[in-house]
Every structure is written in C-alpha cells, then in structure tokens.
Amino acid sequence: MVLLLPHILLLTCSLGLAKAAITSGCGKQATNVGLTTPFNVTSSNASRNFLVHVPLGYDNHHQYPVVLAFHGNTETAAELELDTRLSDPKWSPSASLPSLPCLGFKLMVYPNGINASWAGASYSNSTISQDLQFVSDVLSDLSSNFCIDSNKIYATGFSNGGGFVDILACSGNSVGAKFAAFVAASGAYYQEALYNSTYQCVPAKSPTPIAFIHGLNDSDVFYDGGDGEGGFLPAVPAVVDSWVSRNRCGNLSTADSYNGTVHISSWTCDGVDGALEHYREADMGHVWASQQQTFSQLVIGEGPTKLEANDVIMKFFDKFSLDKESNWGRFTINWNGGDRH
Ligand SMILES: *[C@@H]1O[C@H](CO)[C@@H](O)[C@H](O)[C@H]1NC(C)=O
Ligand SMILES: *[C@@H]1O[C@H](CO)[C@@H](O)[C@H](O)[C@H]1NC(C)=O
Ligand SMILES: *[C@@H]1O[C@H](CO)[C@@H](O)[C@H](O)[C@H]1NC(C)=O
Ligand SMILES: *[C@@H]1O[C@H](CO)[C@@H](O)[C@H](O)[C@H]1NC(C)=O
Ligand SMILES: *[C@@H]1O[C@H](CO)[C@@H](O)[C@H](O)[C@H]1NC(C)=O
Ligand SMILES: *[C@@H]1O[C@H](CO)[C@@H](O)[C@H](O)[C@H]1NC(C)=O
Ligand SMILES: *[C@@H]1O[C@H](CO)[C@@H](O)[C@H](O)[C@H]1NC(C)=O
Ligand SMILES: *[C@@H]1O[C@H](CO)[C@@H](O)[C@H](O)[C@H]1NC(C)=O
C-alpha cells in the first residue's frame, strides 16, 4: 500500500519542514482514541462545549493537524459530524499509516454554538467577539489535552457555520491568524454585507487560503443573494470577489466537469497557486455535498451530489500550513473528465 504512494508526497514528507512548538498536550494519554467525545470550556463566562474525534492509532508524541467544523443554524455538532462523515478515516486517515504523518491524520473538532447558532446572523444568540473567544478557548484546551501541530489548524463549516468560517478568516487580528486555511460550504455570509461599512474584514495575511463550495439551487442561502433567514445575504460571487481583492488574486483558471454541471474556479493569489477556489454545482441545494447520500440531502429530497465536499476540503487543507506556502497546484480533486480553460 505504502509503495503505491506518489513519490512527490514521500519527498515532501521527508523534507522535514520546521515543526511547530510542542504543545503541553504532547505526551498526555488520550483515553478516547478512535471515538468522538464531548469537552467543556468556560468562555466569556459561559459554559461552552465541543466534540473531539481522536483518530485511531493516535500517538501522543506526534503533532496532529486539527480541523474545526462549524455546524449550521439549529444543527448540533453531533449532527454535523454525522451528516458530513468528516471523522471517517477515509477523510482523516489514521490507523493504517501510523508512520506517515504527512498523509493527513487529523484531530476533528466540532464546536457547538450558543443555542445552536453562530454569530453573524440576526438569529444568533452570541456576538462575534464571544464566538471568536470561544474558538480561542477551544484551541487552548486542545493544546493542553492533545499533541497538535499549530501550523496546521483549519476551519470548515456549513451554512451559518460556513458564514462563521468567513468571519474567522476576516479576524486575522485575533484567533483567525491561527488558522492555515478555510473552507466554507453553503455559507451564509451575512456579515460580508457589512464589511467596510460597519467594520472591516482583516485577514491575517495575503493570501489567506480560502475556498467556497456552493449549489446554484440553494433555497436557503441564495447563490445570487437576497433576504435570508438571518439578514441580507450578499451574492456568493461578490463574496468570492472580495477575497480576490483581499488576497491580491489573479491568473484565474476554470474547469467544468460532469457535463458542465460542476464549475471550478481557482486563482493564484500573491504568487500562491490555488489559494482561492470556488466550487459550484448547478443542481445542488442546501446540502452537504457528498457522493454518498447525506441526511441534509434526504431532508430536501435530494440525491447524492457530484461534488464530494470532504475531498475538496481535506485536499485544500493539506496544501497549506502556516510555516510554508504550498505551490502544489490547483484542482486537486478528481473532477471526472473536467476540462481546463
Ligand atoms: C458539559 O456541557 C454539557 C452541555 O452543555 C453539560 O450537559 C454537561 O453537564 C457539561 N459537563 C461538565 C463536566 O461541565
Ligand atoms: C465575567 O464575569 C465577571 C464577574 O461577574 C465580570 O467581571 C466579567 O466582566 C465577565 N467577563 C466577560 C467576558 O463577560
Ligand atoms: C436568541 O435567539 C432567538 C431566536 O432568534 C431569539 O428569539 C431570542 O430573543 C434570542 N435571545 C437572546 C437572549 O438574544
Ligand atoms: C437560548 O435560548 C433560550 C430559550 O429560547 C433563551 O432563554 C436563552 O436566553 C438563550 N440564550 C442566550 C445566551 O441567548
Ligand atoms: C473595503 O476596504 C478595503 C480596505 O480599505 C478596500 O481596499 C476595498 O476597496 C473596500 N471595498 C469596498 C467594496 O468598498
Ligand atoms: C454526461 O452526459 C452523458 C449523456 O447524458 C452521460 O452519458 C454521461 O455519463 C455524463 N457524464 C458525466 C461525467 O456526468
Ligand atoms: C500570475 O502568474 C504570473 C506568472 O506565473 C506570476 O508572476 C504572477 O505573480 C501571478 N499573479 C498573481 C496575482 O499571483
Ligand atoms: C431545486 O430545488 C427545489 C427546491 O428544493 C427542488 O424542488 C427542485 O427539484 C430542485 N431542482 C433541481 C434541478 O434539482
């Protein structure tokens, strides 16, 4: 199995990139290996909680990348884990390859919002600063309980949680700076309508790697914008364009796959290939994109999608680390016969 790995990957692994500082959780015994268990922290005087999935084969002397996944409005952390299957070793490989840490072993973390929502929407029961503080407190707690690679902390989220991922990416003057890359899925970017008027989006650096996954047939988060459940929704292309300018992107290349139903755009930003990407599927509604039927698809009577969000997300994350800018290229997903233009 190991022999089949592309040489480029082994080469990259053996380069011995500068390691992040050892966290106090290194060497500590984890009792919940292979499982997902709840953790509590006190944050802004409130008791907050999050789920942690520790990969099978967890070695407390190895520093693991961390992915935070933020649920949608009225959803829970447990439901998001179930819907996305992001804890599946298929997407966060672990057990079979204990000696090849570059291959994507990850600690999966699912935080819970206050009253099942995240800041940024009119229905939120938390403020942006409370939720940013919570993320900061989650990261501190993780560092003291697990051995983590602080150069490889990533954020993804669905819907209201996807909107919060955008807020994190815009909070480079605080905890947003601790993340190496962001992916929003069907995100509701209410706050993007306010950037530059009420407050500024402040990314930690240019480029701040970020990707957006959306369906054109989304009847909750309208692709073309409009009045959403939690306020005014800017059009998704306008949000992506804001990042083209924040990240100083150019050299757009696009690809169409599945007979033109999936459109992928990728930019070079400040010299970093593929630091901004946008994946758009024509018939997809407000669901977690997966080729295997998910609950969010069932609920609206939709079948599996052409896009596999987990694949897009993990491959995007694996390209970026705070201690280096990768130039591994664009379009890392298998797009089944897509054409480059
Ligand atoms: C952790 O939080 C959950 C959910 O809020 C709560 O039910 C539980 O009692 C808390 N556990 C501890 C040890 O504080
Ligand atoms: C937490 O509670 C203490 C005591 O009531 C108060 O002084 C402090 O301002 C509160 N902190 C936050 C972040 O709400
Ligand atoms: C929490 O959100 C609900 C739903 O939008 C709202 O009715 C309620 O007033 C909010 N509570 C607080 C304390 O903001
Ligand atoms: C959460 O919702 C409950 C019930 O609607 C409400 O009483 C409470 O104030 C809300 N909490 C916050 C922090 O808004
Ligand atoms: C928002 O502010 C930034 C920084 O000041 C500026 O570069 C950008 O053009 C502004 N965008 C809009 C839409 O006004
Ligand atoms: C494209 O459409 C043709 C004809 O409908 C179909 O046979 C083929 O499987 C489709 N290809 C993809 C990648 O969806
Ligand atoms: C576009 O590509 C050229 C040639 O590779 C490169 O010099 C330039 O920096 C790229 N533009 C951006 C915005 O990264
Ligand atoms: C688009 O979404 C609506 C509402 O969920 C659904 O009725 C319709 O079948 C969808 N259209 C396509 C082409 O999937």
From TrEMBL:
<keyword id="KW-0964">Secreted</keyword>
<protein>
    <recommendedName>
        <fullName>feruloyl esterase</fullName>
        <ecNumber>3.1.1.73</ecNumber>
    </recommendedName>
</protein>
<keyword id="KW-0732">Signal</keyword>
<keyword id="KW-0624">Polysaccharide degradation</keyword>
<dbReference type="GO" id="GO:0030600">
    <property type="term" value="F:feruloyl esterase activity"/>
</dbReference>
<dbReference type="InterPro" id="IPR043595">
    <property type="entry name" value="FaeB/C/D"/>
</dbReference>
<keyword id="KW-0858">Xylan degradation</keyword>
<keyword id="KW-0378">Hydrolase</keyword>
<feature type="signal peptide">
    <location>
        <begin position="1"/>
        <end position="20"/>
    </location>
</feature>
<dbReference type="InterPro" id="IPR029058">
    <property type="entry name" value="AB_hydrolase_fold"/>
</dbReference>
<keyword id="KW-0119">Carbohydrate metabolism</keyword>
<dbReference type="GO" id="GO:0005576">
    <property type="term" value="C:extracellular region"/>
</dbReference>
<dbReference type="GO" id="GO:0045493">
    <property type="term" value="P:xylan catabolic process"/>
</dbReference>
